[in-house]
Each structure stands twice: as structure tokens, then as C-alpha cells.
Amino acid sequence: MSLEVINNQQLLRLLQLSSPLLPVGGYSYSEGLESLIAQGIIFDRVTLQTWIGRELQAGAIRIETAVMDRAYMSGNRLDGSGLQYWNQWLSAARETEELRQQSWQMGGSLIKLLVELTPEIQELIIRIERPCNYAIAFGVAAQYWQIDRHAAILAYLHSWVTNSIGAGIKLIPLGQTAGQQILWHLQEELDLLSQIIPTLADEDLYACSWGLSLASMQHETLYSRLFRS
């Protein structure tokens, strides 16, 4: 009986941490999608699904999730130096100011929320140098809330994908059913990547993300924008 209660609690915490209602501002960013749609590079369900799928295969989200996993493990060991190292590493790895500011804003918002929900986490939070990247804050939260490591990885990837689909639905625009079709067809890739992430060595943390970087830099010059840079 007690094991079932613990599992239910972990599931509820995972759902809360990965919920679109989490007040971290992720819904206000398109991560370059608005630029790509304005240029006609992405224009329907197929092209949006292809872009997201390629990002999962070789894009920056792989690195970001791997760093989140390292933050999870550092938190598990109470390794403050590890948390600081990977936070600085991820900040340096961001290829545009827009993507870096997004990560810092979302990370700061999540840290503020964590302290409000579980004040005792402050003892771990103070080990993280500011500004804090979102992946670092997410990993620390998942570990502190005793969420299964693999489940945390899968939830982080799923949250990124659903945010990207949500942006595409608004911008292209697409119907909700089309968005669900994309999410359904990407399940296998999400599962595969969630299994690969824990196996990545430090020297494997690289990505082909120049397309995302260019789209991100071009976003602030758009004539009109629905999302933040």
C-alpha cells in the first residue's frame, strides 16, 4: 500500500513539473519557429513534424536534456560544484542571446516556484549560480521531488515537443487534431531519445543546430510577432 502511495505521489509531481500550466513562461517562446513559418519553411503538419523530429535527432534539445540529466545526478549527490559547472557550460553553449535569455528567464521562474512549493529545497538551490538555466532547475526539481530519472528525461523532452507543437498550431495555423497527430507520430522518437540521453558521455554533447540559431536571431526583426524573442 505504501509503495502505491509513493508511486502516485511521484506521478503527480511529474505531471505538475511537466504541465503546460507551470508558470515559467515556456508558452511565450517559439524557439525560432515563428521565423521559419514567416519564411515559408514550415507551413503545414508534415513540415512541422519533420522539423521537430530532426531537432530531436540532432538538435540542441539533445544537449539540453543531457545537461538536465546531469543536474539531476548532481542534485542526487548534493554536488554543488557539478551544478555550477553544468549551468555555466549550458549558458556558454547557447548560440544566441535570445535562447540564453529564454533559458535564464524560465529557470529563474522555476526556481522561484520551487521555493514557494517546497521551501526546504532552498538548501540545494543556493548551490546553483545565478542566472540559472531551465534545464538545471528542472533536473534539480525532479531529483528533489524523487521523480524517476528516466521519467524526468521523457517528461522534459515531451514538454519541449508539446510547446513546439503548440506554437505551430497558433502560427501556421493548424487544428488541434493535427497537433495530436504530430505528437502521436513522434512518440517512438521520444522514447528512443529518452533511452539514449543517459548513455551520452560528455564528449558526445554536440548538436547540429545552426538552423535553429539563425531562426532565433532573425526573430526580433520580424514585422510582427506573436511570441517573444
Task: Write a structural description.
This protein is mostly helical and 229 residues long. It has one domain: Urease accessory protein UreF (Orthogonal Bundle), CATH 1.10.4190. The protein has twelve helices and no strands. Helix 4 packs antiparallel against helix 9 and helix 6 runs parallel beside helix 8. It is globular. The N terminus is likely disordered.
Structural class: mainly alpha
Q: Give the proportion of residues in helices.
A: 55-70%
The CATH homologous superfamily is termed Urease accessory protein UreF
Tell me the β content: under 5%
Distance between the termini: 48 Å
Low-confidence stretches: 1-5
Total beta-strand segments: 0
> How would a crystallographer describe the biggest sheet?
none
Q: Any idea of the CATH topology?
A: Urease accessory protein UreF
The oligomerization state is single chain
General form: globular
Summed up, the helix count is 12
Q: For the CA atoms, what is the radius of gyration?
A: 17 Å
Produce a short descriptive summary:
The chain is mainly α and 229 residues long.
Helix and strand topology:
Layout: H1 2-17, H2 33-38, H3 45-58, H4 60-76, H5 80-93, H6 97-117, H7 122-125, H8 134-144, H9 149-171, H10 176-185, H11 187-196, H12 210-219
Helix pairs in contact: 3-9, 3-10, 4-5, 4-8, 4-9, 6-8, 9-10, 9-11
How would you describe this structure in keywords?
single chain, 229 residues, mainly alpha, Urease accessory protein UreF, 12 helices, globular
